[in-house]
Amino acid sequence: MAKSSDVDDLLVAFRRFAAHGDHKAAAASEMPGQKWAKLCKDCKIIDGKHVTSTDTDIIFSKLIPKTSRGMSYADFRKALEMLAQKRFPDQSKEDALQSVHKLIEGKGPANAGVTKVDKTGAVDRLTDTSRYTGSHKERFDVSGRGRGRGGREDLVENTGYVSSYRHQGTYESKVKGKPGGAPDS
């Protein structure tokens, strides 16, 4: 049989996993299925050979009635007994249960690796103004500084020419520069 300190450590681990991610559940008395699966995964009860996530889901559904949302501590202990022999098949029933308890005791939910930093440099690539094309290119000068309002809005030029006309301002010189080309008044 387990020592009382082992049972206390097991209860602490049960409460940590049951309350994980739920700030309202300070002293959770029931553990939902997703947190049961997290406990089995984080504490390495699921090894991929003897115990899989399907096995833990089946045990959870066997012990918990459809009307209940989670397992109590007593159900949790029964589930561990069911998993112990499956996880450690070469040990006796009591030794296997002790080995499973050692995997869980004093542990808490792991948060490491949940959110990873993207190291692909996509931000650098997307903010490199020298690679911009089309209308976005007009918003920045050669050094990469923004042009402000001039780069965001189409400023209207009332010159009489179509915008970006290459020969803008040459009409007067062409018409008045020719002899006899002046318009009749």
TrEMBL record:
Residues 131-185 are annotated as: Disordered. Residues 135-155 have a biased composition (Basic and acidic residues). Signal peptide: none annotated. Its main location: cytoplasm. It comes from Knipowitschia caucasica (Caucasian dwarf goby). Keywords: Cytoplasm, Cytoskeleton, Microtubule. The keyword Cytoplasm applies. GO terms for biological process: microtubule bundle formation; microtubule polymerization; positive regulation of protein polymerization. One of its GO terms (molecular function) is tubulin binding. Belongs to the TPPP family. This is Tubulin polymerization-promoting protein family member 3. It is found in: Cytoplasm, Cytoskeleton. Residues 160-171 have a biased composition (Polar residues). GO terms for cellular component: microtubule. InterPro entries: EF-hand-dom_pair, TPP/p25.
